[in-house]
């Protein structure tokens, strides 16, 4: 199982896990309680489904509040372990110890192994590795220090260097920004992205997809 946010880190972690001999069987994404957007990256379910289809993998999307997130995550891991005969779960975290501790805990509860292929690697080196390995990502949310001008931009080596020079983590590991994988070696073809608008809310800038605009317009 891969904990799939739709962004660059989980994608590269999955690629490295495959190189280590692991076989991906299912993707897991935790959604907002309405089940329409992912909690981690704010991606609509339709785009996550596109990614899964490009990899010919099933996607399990679980709606959860922050209050029942952990309980539902563990319960889902247990169900997926039985259904897909899982031995392990792959995560894309790099060096936030609290995240690793949580992932180790939920996997222990489900009696499977936690695998973190990116753990404690240098962040700028990781971005370069991802780009060299043909992972193409676009920025879909960022803090207001970066600003709306970065939304939709393709993450390149030059852009990663620019962010680092501005004091922004080039991996966005501290939540500075999130990405969406639009193409990579795991995909049969690139993701088709609809036209989008941008918005700022609570000191964070994010892409607004057409289906969300329609929902907001409904009385």
TrEMBL record:
**Which CDD domains does the record cross-reference, listed alphabetically?**
AANH_PF0828-like (cd01994)
Ranges for the Diphthamide synthase domain? Answer: 4-206
SUPFAM superfamilies xrefs: Adenine nucleotide alpha hydrolases-like
Q: Name one GO molecular function term.
A: hydrolase activity
Cited InterPro entries: Diphthami_syn_dom (IPR002761), DPH6/MJ0570 (IPR030662), Rossmann-like_a/b/a_fold (IPR014729)
For this UniProt record, the keywords arranged alphabetically read as follows: Hydrolase
- Record-annotated membrane-spanning stretches: none
Looking up Pfam families in the UniProt record yields:
Diphthami_syn_2 (PF01902)
Indicate whether tRNA-binding appears among the record's keywords.
Answer: no
Q: A GO BP term, please?
A: protein histidyl modification to diphthamide
Kindly give the PANTHER family that the UniProt entry links to this protein. Answer: DIPHTHINE--AMMONIA LIGASE, DOMAIN OF UNKNOWN FUNCTION 71 DUF71 -CONTAINING PROTEIN
| Protein name as catalogued | Adenosine nucleotide hydrolase
